Every structure is written in C-alpha cells, then in structure tokens.
Amino acid sequence: MGSSEKQPEEKLGTDVVHDELVSSIKKKMDNVFPHCICRVDEKVVRENKKAYHPELISIGPFHHGRPELKEMEDNKLRYLHALLNRKPDMEASLARCVTEIRGSELKARNCYPEGETIKLNSDEFVTMMLVDGCFIIELFLKRSFKTLRRRGDPIFTSHETIGTVRFDMVLLENQYPLFVLHRLFGIVPIPEICSRSLNSIAFNFFKNIIPGNKKTIQVRFDQEGNHLLDLIHNCFLPTFSDVHPSKENQQNKQSQRQPQDQASAREQLKTSSKLHESGITLRKTDHNGVLDFEFKNGVLYIPEVKIHRYTETLLRNLIAGEQCNCDDFEHVTSYVCLLAKLIRSDKDEKILMQKNILSSSLKEDGDVHKLFKKLADKVVTKNFYFEELCKQVVGYKRESWFSLPSCFKK
Description:
- The protein has 410 residues and is mainly α.
- It contains 19 helices and 5 strands.
- The strands form 2 sheets. The chain has a 3-stranded mixed β-sheet. It has a two-stranded parallel ribbon with strand order 4-5.
C-alpha cells in the first residue's frame, strides 16, 4: 500500500520535471530562431521613403503607433471582430488566440534583429500580433470570398485603397512572422465557404502583382517562408541552379576564375538594341520562371517582363530582403541588374516590346529603362546569378566578330 500511495507523487514529480525540460528546450529553440524581418538601411530609405514605409497600414512593430496610420487601426479591430465572431463564443476564440500568441512571443520577437528596440511590453506586443495577424487572415478571406465583405467596407469599396493596402503589405518593414500566422489560422473560426490553405488565400491576394506563369508561381508560393514577402521571393527563384553553366562550371572550376573576368563580362554586355543589331536574336522564352534566361545558338531567350504600378516597390523590397538575409542568394538583385544592362534607352524598350518580351502600364515612354536604372543604382551584387549568361553572350559576339572576313575587321 505504501508503495502504491507514492506512485502518484512520483508521477507528478516526473511530469513537473518533464514540463520544465520541454519549456527549457523550447526556449532555447525560440532564442536561435533567425532574425528574418529587418529594417531597410537608412541611407536607402532616405532616397525613396515611399517605397519602404507604409502609406495606410502598419503590420508588426516597426511602424506600429505612427499617428498617420491610426485610422486603419479601427478597421483592423473590425476585421478581428468579424473573424472571431463567426462562432457563438467569441470570447473563447479570443482567449485561445491570446494563449497561442503568448506562447509564441519570444520566438516572434526574435524574428526582428538583435539591437532593434521594440518599445512594447508583453501585453502590448501580444495584442499587436493578435490584431495584425487576424486582420491579415480576414483580409485574405474577404479578398477570396466576396460574400464575406460587408457593404461599405472602406478597404474594398475602392480599387485605390485595396491597391495601397496590398502595396503596404509587400514592404519588408511591414512583414509578420509566418509561423504565427499559420498558428492563428489553425485556431480561428474559418468560415465554411473556405476549404483552402492560408498560403492559397494569401496567393490569391498577391497573385496579380507577381510576374510569371500563375500555375508555376503558385507552386513556388506554397513553399516554406519566414513571412509573406519571403513567399513572393520564392516565386522569383530560378528553375535552373545556374544559367546553363559552361564545362568549366561543371568541372567545379569556378573558384579559379578571376573577379576581373566576372566584372568584365557584365560590363561588356550590350543593350537589347545593340545585341539585336549585332545579329543576336532576342526571343521570349516558353520557360515559366521569371529568372529563366537562356542563351543558345545565338538566341537570347528572355522571360516576359511585365511592369506595373507595384513593380518598383516590390523589387526594391525584395532586393532589401536579399541584402539583409544571412544567405548569399541574390536572385532578384541579379535580375534587376541584368535588366538594367539590357534596357537602357527608349530604343531598347521598343525592340523588346516588338518581340512581345516587355509590356508596361507605366504612363510615359522611357519610364521602364529609367525605372531599372534607379533600381540598380548603388546596388552591389556579391553573387551575380547571371555571370555565366553574360560570358556566353559576350563570348558569342567575339566569336562572330573573328569569323568575319578580314575586309570587315576595321
């Protein structure tokens, strides 16, 4: 009897130790979660503040509490109420959300850089994450299912307003930890009309501003990411690991190349009109990836380039994300730098439009090459993805030149 009476106490003691161990391990994991949401460099922001700071709505702590964004805070609360009120016991739903976010607070705070002062205590931080996260989910639901929209909704009554909200939500400084969003999506009362995943309704919200084949980019958008802009960045990842590497690359001799040669190929790459005049054919590629450029037998295959009102902001923030990322991938930065080389005049724009490679909704002729000149200005790439492509194009031109009869080599 004595031994049997001790068993519950021993079991209770084991459970306490187990809970403490789980809590300790979880805290360690949360502390090493990567800082994935960064501020844009102040020098860059000063040059074009509008491209990096929200106009209507703040998401997360960086712009939280700004007076000029206060009006949208009431709309966030309305969206929170609409989302949680779909079940009779709204208070129980609210309590579950608060408990979930409070348990994720340390990990969520660690999404922001060390040394970044977030002047919010625990309750304020949890409240902000709850309101912003539920707002995002309800926004995506209302965008996907019109029947969920209420008459007079200030966000959806104007194309300009929903466009500005979408504009604000691709900003790097306005990102929200995706893991928290997924956890909220798993516990809030989702309407019966929706059987789709969070990533699916998020893609529906952003799909019109992401270039590329919609089926292809939806698959890429559905991959893992740290935040929503990260999912958009996935859509820019290339199909090829490299741009048709030469035998040198295949034999792993990349380390033997001189940096001067890399810079030389990029510097010598001519504009689209000059490449066309030199005999190189420019052709729209059938590949689905935005970065799937290819050079073969004197033909430069270029994926379709669509320019719209969101292009500059989207590309600027994707580049900013790559600059602050801990890995060395610079796919979007490389893409912008390549297009800045290929499109440098009205003539370049026209030749690419004639080939159905380029389309633009910008107001003035020449706006496209001015845009890419601005985007590539002062941008430094450590790992230029299109290095091999540039070498192939420049090399082909040299071979063509030396194959001409001597009478033309003057």
